[in-house]
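RECORD TYPE: protein structure
NAME: Succinate-semialdehyde dehydrogenase [NADP+] (Ssdh)
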Amino acid sequence: MSAELQDSTLLCDQSLIDGVWCDARSGLAFDVKNPASSEVLAQVPDMGAVDARTAVEAAAAAFKDWRRRSARERMAILRRWHQQIIDNADDLALLLTLEQGKPLAEARAEVLSGANFVDWFAAEAMRVMGDILPPADNSRREWSTRHPIGVVAAITPWNFPSSMVTRKVAPALAAGCTVVLKPAEDTPLSALALAVLAERAGVPAGVFNVVTASHGAEVGGELTSNPQVRKLSFTGSTAVGKLLMAQCAATVKKVSLELGGNAPFLVFEDADLDEAVRGAIAIKFYNTGQTCICANRIMVHERVYDAFLERLARAVGALTLGEGTGDGVTQGPLINPAAFAKVSSLVEDAVSSGATVVTGGGGDAGLGGTFYPLTVLGDVTPAMKVFNTEIFGPVAPVYRFSDEDEAIRLANDTPYGLAAYAYTRDLGRIFRLNEQLEYGMVGVNTSRFVSETVPFGGVKESGIGREGSVYGIDEFLETRYLCLAGL
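PREDICTED:
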């Protein structure tokens, strides 16, 4: 690698099944590349259905013991994992930047955010409780109890290759479940490093397994069809989520799906424009626009449209595009050339349909084939492809609206419903927006609100279930009813 880890053992080139670091049964492997330079960082096992089945069997066997461990013991192991992540945060951040591209400061923030999820759910392990129910008559007593659901299949995306792992694995382990993780093929190294640290923390063999694969269909097919897997937790595109959900139907698995987004960012005429611009920059260009909660459609009241657009373009000009390990870099590359081509196509369609390039625009940014210029588009309309497409790139399309009703109608005019943002000082409007916006999360006068303490998730085609907060562990538990009669 072009940069060195303090602990070289965190760079793994094998998968983890039943406590054994192993290659694919087939002997196949695939390259993991730096998206900024195309440097090969490592080769990891290209596993298939047989490997995934072996991992599931290991997880099922380990579940028998892990579920019987006391909540206090699981909490202690998770807290040791949390400390391992904190102690190795610099190496984990460097690995993340090298395989995913985001700037080092942003990568380190992600690692620490992921550690917070482990810490949070370590404590939640002690709070899994049931209820004493009012009896139907005095001859019996009734209870509800909560139990770990069993083997969990977790499939994580490339855009947050560290925190998305801990957001799924930590609550599953806290609940008493065991896990088979399939990380994204572009970014498996962060997941493997986290597994190393989980082992060091005392997570037993078979409780946390990692299966790497260059194409997820074969492994995913095994995880969704295997009857020993009782729960699927997936973060990724809506199209793949629908496919996995359909595959899980045959064995009626519990599913959690965190899917695509098309977030509106509403700026009303009474907004603090400087704060709105800061918020738009923070969330639109977060991870170079490659997040499901990015501001995808920036909608500005016509009275302040020109002023907002001018300030936004000036703020974008202050950002620095470059390789994530470079000094002062705030924006990294897109994940691969296909992502670059998609973003280019959306900008070209918008411009050909009448949008204006305020700053940036098409073409190579002069840094290589995955660096797209930071772009602001004006005069964008709902008729353009960019309105209904998750951009996943550093392009800020700015739309006009004339009143509150139009803003709400445009915001809801999408099958997605993950996150929405609004800038306004009108308290009545804030309550109306909360009641009428069809989104699982709404930020008012702020664009960065995600943490381990809040429920993350969407409605409509943006998914099912919640991650984080007191609700996050519920996804890995089932409720049972006990009736004791003859008293």
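COMMENT: The longest strand covers residues 141-148.
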